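Q: I'm writing up a methods section and want to include an example of the input and output format. Could you take the sequence below and give the corresponding predicted structure tokens, formatted cleanly so I can copy it straight into the document?
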Amino acid sequence: MAIFPSKEWVEGVLELAKRSEEYKEASKDWEGDFLCIIECDDEFMGDLSRKEVIEGFMSFLNMIPEESRKKYKGSPMGDFMEKKLGISLDASLTRLDLNELVARISKLSAEDLSNAALYFWADFWHGSIRDMIGVAPGEHEDAAFKLSGKYSSWKLLVSGQQDTMRLVMSNRLQLEGDMQYMMKRMKAVVALTKEVLAGVPID
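A: Here is the clean output for your methods example:
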């Protein structure tokens, strides 16, 4: 099982997109990239109390090149990393003392993550996902679509408990872009959620 978001989760999604014939068929006329914004909330803070979640979270951030990762500096997430956790944004995030991080996080509250967010970018192209990567604030702002929402809502989506459009219609996720284009490709949206995103079991 993968942690969301993590390098393992991203790799799992990309692999399933290559293998799923249902997804390929449903999305064969779908093109457009998405900037996805995960807004940290109480549930994210609670999940961070687990070592495996911290490790996954760091692997996700470590996917971002160090030069790009510096763009987090001065942001709520950057302040959380550097000032609360004592982690330099321009260093490798693979050799961290997870026990020490758990101890530090145990002394914090969701307020310490207020307005913090994580970002990833996905490029959909005629039955494939050409790329999916963690990105820094300000990158890929020109994406065709933006999908944003609380971490808890994202978990409902990627676990398959809720579909994308239901979360959008209930305002738990916010979608910006050509809604008419998206509505005409509901089969692709459903296949993406069911066959690909929810196909990677999360812990």
